[in-house]
């Protein structure tokens, strides 16, 4: 098999961290650093082509097998799910999912159905299902912190990195939902068809973690 | 959305080459199945939801397409073919001698996620051998799986074998609570190495721990079995797989056979050998099956069984299918109908057709429009060719 593997990287911060990791592993990532107008970036010294995509799209590309590998946040995996192998915790992009409520409010101290705003309705549903609590979930696309401030929701479930945004808006994280970091995922058929190539790549990354 | 001219999400019209590739695969598979002594069965497209529920089917209820009948009963569009065939085997075929070799060529329907690019109608061709157990039945089935993909015209493919018993054997040595065990199974299934390691931290002292930790890595060629043996020691499941491999290799099937001992999908459903077929060019398995010894019994007759299904369109997408090009249009006088039909029948299918036009001039225009280079004119005075 002489074919090249294709990897989908999540655009933005995870992309920068992935490139750093790959460079430490000895891969020449200059085509990703200087993309020009090209959308598929062929690495010159390793049989790997990279494409950049939004997190949920990385999963879509890998599930359909048009990309063999992907780097994506655990938050996206938890929300979107799907069928692929999650082979490596890359250790970067660390943050957590948390339930946050306005300062001074007693979230659990009422029999009323709570209303939660989140960009991650599936994660939120699973979290409260485990507690055996019925909550009303409102999907918000932008700044979720706004929802409790204007009285739309009693709390939010969101990704927390430093907690600065929460603090500035008088929201207190009261419970962790999950911890999150970047993961290396692999298409199930590619894993079987190109085992040696994929393991070579996994080991290159794994050795540096 | 205009519901009067559009089609539902997940469905599609299949045109020309798409139909040909489907027919080509179905034709190759069904011919092979018949040659090996399998008889065709076909089951209703709509059946009671309860039947699939009772079967312990691993399909989640949200993936079944439901219909409510006039009396309010819940029906589903056939979500898989094995369950109805198990029902048939236990009821209609109750008194026929076993084993029965059955094949089917019918679609199953799944309600997929919106906008995920999946199809809700999946064409499948598959076989079930009801009432046979043991190595010979499994050998026949694995060999048939290899021959099936080869018959379709695939070249770079392999059949991967696993065994539901192997995970059970290894996990039995862990003495884990059931919930933890299910989490373990999910992590092995997803080859989630990192999380698996974390989970096993608390079980370091158990002897089976090393084998479980390596379980997601235990896939590949026949050497996989040797490594598994080093880790797990005595194992009836490994002995069984080794025996199968020796026999398959002796028959020339060895190069198509690989192993994945981490194949622990639907482990409550499968009871023995599990297999998957992978082909270069397909992002998902194109064949899947295994041994399910307790399914038929749920319908009231004890009968071991094994079988597999081929994803017809998955295989078709890996093939290059050419559609014949129209080369000749026949313009004929109605008194020459017999000769005109004979001219069409004498040429390869799809390369020649009759012109319905009354005048020769319209026929020539039609030929130009269709990009056809020659027109055959058949009149009582004789035949002639016109190059367009």
Polypeptide structure, described:
The complex is a heterodimer of chains A (209) and B (388). With 209 residues, chain A is of the alpha/beta class. Chain A is 33% helix and 31% strand. Chain A folds into 2 domains: 5-93 and 181-206, 3-Layer(aba) Sandwich (D-Maltodextrin-Binding Protein, domain 2); 95-179, 3-Layer(aba) Sandwich (D-Maltodextrin-Binding Protein, domain 2), CATH 3.40.190.10. Chain A is built from 9 helices and 11 strands. In chain A, the strands form 2 sheets. Chain A has a 6-stranded mixed sheet with strand order 2-3-1-4-11-5, with helices on both faces. Chain A has a 5-stranded mixed sheet with strand order 8-7-9-6-10. The mean pLDDT of chain A is 92. In chain B, the strands form 3 sheets. In chain B, strands 1-5-6-12-11-10-7-9-8 form a 9-stranded mixed sheet, sandwiched between helices. Chain B has a 4-stranded mixed sheet with strand order 14-13-15-16, with helices on both faces. Chain B has a 3-stranded antiparallel sheet with strand order 2-4-3. With 388 residues, chain B is α+β, with helices and mostly antiparallel strands. In chain B, a hairpin with a 5-residue loop joins strand 3 (66-68) and strand 4. Chain B is built from 13 helices and 16 strands. Chain B folds into 2 domains: 17-316, Bira Bifunctional Protein, Domain 2 (BirA Bifunctional Protein, domain 2), CATH 3.30.930; 328-387, 3-Layer(aba) Sandwich (Rossmann fold). Chain B has helices at 17-35, 49-54, 82-90, 135-151, 164-172, 178-189, 193-200, 209-214, 223-232, 236-250, 312-316, 337-346, 360-370; strands spanning 39-40, 46-48, 66-68, 74-77, 100-109, 121-130, 157-163, 219-220, 257-260, 273-279, 287-291, 305-311, 328-332, 352-354, 374-379, 382-387. The chains are: A alpha/beta (209), B alpha+beta (388). The A-B interface holds A 60, 63-66, 84-89, 183, 186-193, 195 and B 116-117, 158, 160, 190-195, 216, 219-220, 258, 260, 278, 280, 282-285.
